[in-house]
Amino acid sequence: MVASLTPPLTSLDALLPQMQARGFAVLSAASVATMAGCEDAALHAMTPGWNDLAPDRYLRDGGHYRKRRHSCFVVDGDAVAQAPHRAHWQSQEYNALHGGMRRWFEPIEPSLIAQAAWSQLIASLGKVFSRLQPTPTWYVEAHQFRIDTTDGVGRPTPEGAHRDGVDFVAVFVVDRVGITGGETRVFEADGPDGQRFTLSEPWSVLLLDDARVIHESTPIQPLQDGAHRDTLVLTYRAGGFQGD
To answer: What is the pTM of this model?
Structure first.
């Protein structure tokens, strides 16, 4: 394990070589905006969309610390089309805690999806991933998460270190408010190499090759009332959505 609490930022020029060599990369918010072809302010304009998430009623650990929304999209080049609302499904192979269930979450609000930066972000990542794995069409699941400290401790990944059962994953830290913890840990799926760091800059992102690495985030604890951690997770899969 290589200990590094500061995120190992990658420049856009080095993004593909980094992904090919390590299976993961971290981009700053400025790099994300450049990649998506939008202003930094356009990313931050989406942040209020995390203030009205619905409780996650499927937590098998009995917790009440997670709120979320979920919608699906089909990406073909610059074209991003929202798919009919569907359940989120993973096999138990990839999610031992919640796998095997069809989980119906409230959809992402249309007001967020209508913002230009939303589609620009999803399409730009599809282009990056297509350079790593040539794919004409990506099936994308978007998850808004708020992990709070209602239970004293909030668990971003209650299932532990895991893969998601897709091709690529993007984990954006949207906001951190009054918390400690929430450290990101990335490990080789078939080897000893790993790295840990804390994503703290709003709209910075961790990109993952899901076949090559596993990941987790450590629990959060409050430093003040209303403490929480907001993230956006986008998963990209060729051939169709999980559960089709």
So the answer is: 0.93
